[in-house]
């Protein structure tokens, strides 16, 4: 080397870069332990030269602590299949960078430009997406820079040669190297000329270059005599030429005659070992940068979502619920999903206003901390309505839109029975609603219909099995249960489970003895001890008792049974309590549908229905994403009755909400009716099943309801309210306060702070509010807040939201009311005395016999789900206030083995409501011109 030109070793610089990236990856892992930078390398076919490059990239990724996956597709891959693969990787949060290895070795035509543009700009670490290319062209370096040009720039900078003011010549105009290289030099303030193989007097042009970048693909085209003395020469070419001295007969050279350039240039890159290693290093750098951006978003999301609330246009007087709802245009649910951290593959859109949320989000966020957990309950309900759902919606609107906290509401899906009956919808009210309210109250995404179908499939199989066992011999029954297919019999997996429960350790259908055949084939269901009923999601009093099997085809095998409303089905309770698909499957399998003639429980799994029910319910286990009037997220899921089942939204909805909201966020979920029913079951059944620890209780009350508990006049639907409820009456209010105080006491028994929310009405007075607040705080409530969310939305609940935040900041001292090892009777007594204020309980002989049977059969350690009127702390719906030391009569008891609880019945509890004389049906109609639903609320 005459002038001592320096060799620019890309290998050495790339090694330095990898060492730096290794530290950066370690820092990412320190900040977000669950985040591993991931690179997906997509290859079509199996060209060996491509395989060499891919192995280099994977090795480099592993060296710095990244995860790299080689997604190899066959040569038969079509363009659409490749696009689908790219789309899947775009949506996969495990990958922060995606490259498609070129050239594509496909048997079918594929547009390479279309493929590179299909890679998300946020994951396009090759920098080949048109959006990223366009950014470079306009001087915007915020996207990913193309790897080879970026590597060349890094090498040029290492020479110490000033780029600004230099004259640079780029030989080659490809979109991968030449064109973006010229842009990077231009925006670094060099004067740039782009030349190519057809440029005239190329040697004279090159002679002027202070910086020369050659990427033309012609072996040793640029000669030493063409190069300006002292120039920086970057050779991007890599070409194979014959060389008989090499074992392979080939050697690699660049586009520059290297030996001739050395005496002239100040710096020159070798081939190989120059630009090549830098290209891989820049690919790694881009992928790490992508992961760093994700890490920053995750860290920032711990504090607050990038959620844009919808503004409310408050008017006075407050219009009807439907007018308010229709005046607000909901945001696209796909936008809302993105705002709260869901990725497209976790969301199934049902139009633009509602979407199913996949349980896959729980796996993705399994290591994230949970949000604070708040349950909303009420005092003992009255016909005046306390506005529990309205308060819940107003609270989350305030938490999210006013307090700028991540907050998700979790609500039950309303049944169509009450919607078309007398209660109406359950979407909230005033300026604290879930929208669209019509969707919320009618069908939604079909979960209740799925429960109905699964329930009735089980009922149909139950009665069919009774019929077939009554009309066939053991052998005929067995041969039909295990039919010969192509001359061979085989047990289904569900039948193998039954054999195992029977203690028969055989898998060959031909090996069973006659006794084993009889035991396997015959369930011997006692028709007089069938506990499973059919269901419909309507109020239909005439289905409360029916006789089935009257057709001559059923051979006089009749029996009395009934229908219940769909939301009272045990399957609905299971949907709300299941923690995932496998848990739901196990619970469905364990459902006791009848008892045999020896008193042994017969399960859904014995009937072979478990798998089929799972198929019907596979989508129903996913909660539905909706929004409030202020555009804050709501998860709607499950709808078990609170006076029959446990009356809470689902565990999976709460779990998803708590992961999405994060450790500084809030999930506000509901418990049906008062603290004596919904809240008690929320704690002792739902929290026991989920393992979640609640942070606060919001107890909703109204001045009007307390006046009724104080002895106020009876309220009749449709009749004007009496003056006692419309004007100040402190004496009547004070007499009703014991009901509120009992519910506060109930909450405090679980070690959870209780925030009383006084749902304000226009007829309340300041003195009445002050009386309630003073009494609540004296009884131990953490705070008592007057909330005006109905008239003002989140703004009206801002003070309530602050009280909830403050309450959740207290360390949780949560404890359950009873231990599962207690006897069934003792657990009933504990609930009756502690939650209701009862003095004693009374069990009739039928109930005592059932308790003995449940205990003998291994169900004695299940929690208790009391079925009691919601309208009183006692079993008498007319008893208002807070009676004490009364006798609670348990007149029946039933088992929900799949849901995982025992249900004592206090008084007459109907599972099938009836329609009143004038149901809401009269008012509901469809406007055939506008397509709008009218009269729903």
UniProtKB/TrEMBL annotation:
EC assignment: 1.5.1.5, 3.5.4.9, 6.3.4.3
InterPro entries: Aminoacid_DH-like_N_sf, Formate_THF_ligase, Formate_THF_ligase_CS, NAD(P)-bd_dom_sf, P-loop_NTPase, THF_DH/CycHdrlase, THF_DH/CycHdrlase_cat_dom, THF_DH/CycHdrlase_CS
Domain Tetrahydrofolate dehydrogenase/cyclohydrolase catalytic: 8-126
Highest rank taxon of the organism: Eukaryota
UniProt keyword terms in alphabetical order: ATP-binding, Cytoplasm, Hydrolase, Ligase, Multifunctional enzyme, NADP, Nucleotide-binding, One-carbon metabolism, Oxidoreductase
GO molecular function, one term: methylenetetrahydrofolate dehydrogenase (NADP+) activity
PROSITE patterns in the record: FTHFS_1 (PS00721), THF_DHG_CYH_1 (PS00766), THF_DHG_CYH_2 (PS00767)
Span of domain Tetrahydrofolate dehydrogenase/cyclohydrolase NAD(P)-binding: 146-293
Subcellular location: Cytoplasm
Pfam family, one: THF_DHG_CYH
PANTHER family per the UniProt record, alphabetical: C-1-TETRAHYDROFOLATE SYNTHASE, CYTOPLASMIC, C-1-TETRAHYDROFOLATE SYNTHASE, CYTOPLASMIC-RELATED
Family affiliation: In the N-terminal section; belongs to the tetrahydrofolate dehydrogenase/cyclohydrolase family. In the C-terminal section; belongs to the formate--tetrahydrofolate ligase family.
Subunit structure: Homodimer.
Name of protein: C-1-tetrahydrofolate synthase, cytoplasmic
The species this protein was found in: Anopheles quadriannulatus (Mosquito)
